[in-house]
Amino acid sequence: MTAAGELRPVVVGAGPAGVRAAQTLVAHGLRPVVIDEAPRAGGQIYRRPPASLAQRNAKTLYGFESKRADALHAAFDGLRGRVDHQPDSLVWNAQDRQLDVMHGPTHGSRQVPYSHLIVATGATDRVLPVPGWTLPGVYTLGGAQVALKFQGCAIGRRVVFMGTGPLLYLVAYQYAKAGVEVAAVLDTARLSDQVAAAPAMLTQPAVFAKGVYYVGWLRAHGVALRSGVRPLRVTGDGTQGRVTGVAWQDGGKERTLDCDAVGFGYALRSETQLADLLGCRFEYAPLHRAHLPVRDAAGRSSVAGVYLAGDGAGIMGADAAEWAGERAALALLADNGIAVDAARAAQLEHRLGRLAGFRRGLERAFPVPHDWAAHAPDDLVVCRCENVTAGTLRQTVAGAGADELNRLKALSRVGMGRCQGRMCGVAAAEILAHATQQPLQQVGRLRGQAPIKPIPIRLVPADRSGA
Amino acid sequence: MTKTSHAPHALLHRVAEATGRDAVPFTIDGVPASALAGDTVLTAVLTQCAQLRRNEFSGLPRAGFCMMGACQDCWISTGDGERLRACSTFIAPGMALLTGKNVA
Questions:
Q1: Dihedral angle at the C-alpha atoms of A43, A49, A54, A60, nearest 10 degrees?
Q2: What's the Cα-to-Cα distance from A297 to each of A119, A176, A237, A251, B51, rounded to whole Å?
Q3: In terms of residue numbers, what domain contains A58?
Q4: Are residues A103 and A49 located together in one domain of the fold?
Q5: Do B72 and A156 touch (CB under 8 A)?
Q6: Least CB-CB distance to A151: which of B11, B39, B55?
Q7: Residue A139's domain is classified under what CATH number?
Q8: Do both A91 and A133 map to the same domain?
Q9: Do A204 and A88 share a structural domain?
């Protein structure tokens, strides 16, 4: 039993999970610290533009999600004065119940102690590289969306969207609605995948209907939609490197299309580095094709006092993140002897459990191309930080016998660049598994390292930075 | 009110909120340029040219990738030797940014 006043909970991340977690802690009399890399709360999905970009309303920015976005923003704004909000701040290390936090604009660094931690670190696009993906004008699907939502910009005048996942059609729709020419949407999933997945997807009819709507809208507006494709390359104009088009394989034939920008990705991957530094136990999760920190139904990790919520511990989407954030906060409270509404906790767990079937349906509708590694050419750049190619990875496997991902990293430097494997880790694991004829779960996962993102060598003590 | 001129080599194109924002003067490779208040450094540069930096290993141009502070491919140099992560740093008056585009 702990008195509420002795608790010093910290929430890392102010997206859907972090905001609902903080709100729940406040509702029970706690004053959490909320640390977020962004200047304004909302996360990536409900990212708010800077104050000087105020001309678009929520409907324009968030479409069908505008009510949820508004509600989440209002919930966080309503906590003003009752949470210690630290925006623009990166948690770059965790040790001995202290977080090392850097304030981005000033480089001011401070230590933030915590009694309990809710980790809601979110996700980024899952990337499987295609030749030409390092050309200027190629962005992730999420990146293409951020450009539009956060900056009112399109990544090009004539854009191809490629890969798979729900974001593929959503971003294409958002671009077309904004008046940008969408040259094509190229989906690696087959139509038959989507048909087979329909029964599971229909467990969330509203979400399913939105997906159908985007596809129907795009088709009705003359956007070329192709499924079952294999992306071959993004072409550019030599060393000046502008995107000039894409090539893909469709039913055995090579097709090409001119464009000046490409958005691509294969759904999302969890940001797990902080959970890793905290010592959380990881397990391979076949549905996510990734090693993820283990959490119980309430969000408790394997480490006492550390809770996991939202896409950072497995991709379940924004609605689930809100529920998981609230559920994790209720667990934190209950674990400290603070009375919570048990029925509400059970209801949240029930909702999250029901979503699991839908999530399996999504994976079936938009499967990651499992034969990607087999078709990756030797000269494909896998690591865009340090230009490590698929051929180098295969030679390292063959020549040095690397059969585990961190060994491959040590020998080839894949995943050792500034992004620490966020962009190449998925692909490197796929190539390693294919080259060694091992199942993906056998090749391991890249270990998190502090600092989990680059920080300047010379940090400024917070008392002198004005942070 | 700012007039944004058509930049033929720009990667990014403004499709919303292009007017009614204060101008922010800065330089790209020593050449005076103008951004809009609320632009990130990435937006400020890529609405006028096609790269932020060159990759240290290939020497080829790069222009960011994830736009959300994860890929670390949008770092850009300043005249005084600092490096900024362009997607998550806002443009400020007088910034002197170097893209490496004039360096072969």
A1: -70
A2: 15, 39, 51, 43, 46
A3: 4-124+269-338
A4: yes
A5: no
A6: B39
A7: 3.50.50.60
A8: no
A9: no
Q: Do B73 and A156 lie within an 8 Å CB cutoff?
A: no
Q: Does residue A67 sit in the same domain as residue A86? A: yes
| Domains: count for chain B | 1
Its pTM stands at 0.96
Residue from A38, A51, A176 nearest B17 by CA: A51
Indicate whether A377 belongs to any domain: yes
Per-residue pLDDT tens listing for chain B (104 residues): 344 445 778 999 999 999 999 999 999 999 999 999 999 999 999 999 999 999 999 999 999 999 999 999 999 999 999 999 999 999 999 999 999 988 75
Count up the domains in chain A and report the number: 3
Give start and end residues of each alpha helix (H) in A115-249: 141-151, 166-177, 191-201, 205-220
Chain B, nearest residue to A137 by Cα: B11
Q: CA–CA distance from A392 to each of A208, A411, A413, A431 (Å)?
A: 42, 10, 10, 11
User: Which residues span the domain enclosing B69?
Assistant: 23-98
Query: Are B70 and A417 inside 8 Å of each other by CB?
Result: no
Pairing label, strands A306-308, A116-119: parallel
| Candidates B16, B37, B51; nearest CB to A136 | B51
The single residue listed with the structure tokens 């678009």 is A56
